[in-house]
Amino acid sequence: MAIRFVVVGLGHIGRRHAALIAAHPEAEVVGICDRLPRQALDWPEGVPEDVYYTRELTELLRQVRFDVACICTPNGFHAPQALECLYAGHHVVIEKPMALTVAECDALMAAADRRGLHVFGVMQNRYSPASAWLKEVVDAGTLGAVLQVHLDCFWNRDLRYYRTADGEPHPWHGDAALDGGVLFTQFAHFVDLLCWTFGRIEVDRVVLANQTHGNVHPFPDSGMVHFRLPGGGLGSLNFSTVIWDRNFESTLTVIGSRGTVKLGGQYMNDLRYCHVAGVTAPALPPSAPPNHYGPYEGSAANHHFVIDNVVEVLRGRAEVATPAGEGRMVVDVIQAIYRAGSYPD
User: Fold this and answer.
1) 237-283 residue pLDDT tens
2) 197 and 68: one domain?
3) Number of neighbours of residue 59 by Cβ within 10 angstroms
């Protein structure tokens, strides 16, 4: 029998989840939930037109037999909707971020543990060939002692993102309760790569600013973060969404005692520099293209790896690739950055 999925939230990413599930030989979509009426939705490729559809999650839980719920709704809904599914006895796949607070993450983990269920995070940038290679060489000690790590994320998010085609405020982009800020919505994947590769960083000093988005959201759109690595090395994170017109770059420079490596490109998918003792820069396979959201773009479209892992885990053939504890770490770091932030006069 196929693994039965429902998709909660049928926006750009929800449609991608649904299409990938429908294309998987061991999975099927058996239900979809979205706040919009059925006729207003762009139905996902490969999903039968007669799949059960409702605008209410409680009705979906009551009417449909399934194994896994993919939570693809606005950030502020992730934790309460995932909890509702866990309480009803279902595994959950939660789009990034896992939640907006550590307390919500703890509640999700406790609910899953009590019921013997899995919480799968969506941190698809780990599947980039360049990121996977860097993780391998760091774990192997190839770079020697990691002395410095510098992460720079410079993206565009202008009125096209925060306004609808009619010029009205977007239903959740920039909303105080549903968005959470650019570190959660745009850059959580890169904070995850930091923690996944180097361990839980310790935030030291943070300067934040809302330079160009004061009329569309209450969050800082830019920040400079100094942090310490678990082994004592130094690190920095510079992030911003003030870039004009389109995303510029996302880069990660690692300085070790035996060499230096830099990942780069718009979505940190390329090995741009490798000068390490005894290492020849590998010829890595190309990464997946970015996700497209109309006039703007996001990180690499690696969601098929996530769905594959869910099926493999539920078949008893694999372990969870992105466990809840690692999703919690990302939320913990982002909360620490926002708490430590000061604003220039």
Assistant:
1) 999 999 999 999 999 999 999 999 999 998 898 999 999 999 999 99
2) no
3) 13
CA distance 124 to 205: 28
37-86: per-residue pLDDT in tens?
999 999 999 999 999 999 999 999 999 999 999 999 999 999 999 999 99
Nearest to 14 by CA among 329, 335, 219, 303: 303
- Do 205 and 224 fall within a single domain? yes
**CA 298 to centroid of chain Cα atoms:** 10
134 and 117 share a domain? no
**Within-domain flag for 333:** no
Is residue 134 within 8 A of residue 196, CB to CB? The reply is no
- Say how many domains are in the chain: 2
Query: Where residue 64 sits, what CATH number does that domain have?
Result: 3.40.50.720
Domain of residue 172, residue span: 126-299
DSSP per residue, 66-116: -SEEEE-S-HHHHHHHHHHHHHTT-EEEEPSSS-SSHHHHHHHHHHHHHHT
